[in-house]
Amino acid sequence: MAGCSGSGGSGGSSDGKIVMGFAQVGAESGWRTANTKSVQESAKSAGVELKFSDAQQKQENQIKAIRSYIQQKVDVIAFSPVVESGWDTVLNEARNAKIPVILTDRAVDSQDKSLYKTFLGSDFVEEGKKAGQWLVDQYKDGTDQVNIVQLEGTTGSAPANDRKEGFEQVVSADPRFKVIASQTGDFTRAKGKEVMEAFLKANPKIDVLYAHNDDMALGAIEAIEGAGKVPGKDIKIISVDAVHDGMQALADGKISFIVECSPLLGPQLMDLAKKVVKGEQVPDRVVTEETTFTQEQAKDALPGRKY
Ligand code: AHR
């Protein structure tokens, strides 16, 4: 496709394939590993030549990767922005080079929506609301204060901002729910454990942990067990993603509820990329379909789970 009219690239594949430059966030979580696999496998089966980079959770690395894709004159750039702000300059450079950009998984906060063609991914505010609603339903008959600690995702990232916002929108309606501590665990297991250890030392009574992803919840489970408490009983845990290890912890009763966030974005991304390169119209926003899991539902779903 490189060299065709309507496409930005002219330095791409010599065999007529679309060339996509994909700037991934990193390899911080089970979700991310599954997402990378989905993108790589889907590119292969869709006949898209993929140039892939891992930014190790650093915005400057993603910007460098995008600039290198512009220099290489790829046909389309896709990326999952590590944080929401600070993208306008590099997105303008892509636009000037006539290379279409697709946002996948995470959003940017640019006012100029013409800097990218479409945004494919979850509704993170909705995910936060689902987490909050489960909690409200669990405590509907109680009168005591419910002490919540929150493990936030990467500071400044769309999922951290939106999952926090959605959750707060729901729980703040009832004064019994108090978020007594909230800190980033950067979406990693190691940081989730470390921050939860600090939460446990500083707060003698924690009723609920809301973790913005399964990996941080899994790290926190180690911290809770290390402190001689029983996850799922002494402290209820709600998390987001529904990756295999999270679902196993849910089925084992250590996590109480998981809001699904699907990493399997590859097939839809390749479809959108082909359309965008041909100059066809695509929707501004494509929202991923997702569900939630209780402990019983996790037991049923686990055998057929792909990631
Ligand atoms: O952007 C999606 C989030 O990023 C996932 O929920 C989290 O696990 C990942 O690191």
From TrEMBL:
Single GO term (MF): carbohydrate binding
PROSITE patterns named in the record: PROKAR_LIPOPROTEIN
Subcellular compartments: Cell envelope
Family: Belongs to the bacterial solute-binding protein 2 family.
Keywords: Signal, Sugar transport, Transport
Listed name of the protein: ABC-type sugar transport system substrate-binding protein
GO annotation, cellular component aspect: cell envelope
The keyword Protein transport belongs to this UniProt entry's keyword annotation: no
Domain (Periplasmic binding protein) ranges: 26-281
Superkingdom of origin organism: Bacteria
Principal location class: other
Naturally occurring in which organism (per UniProt): Streptosporangium sandarakinum
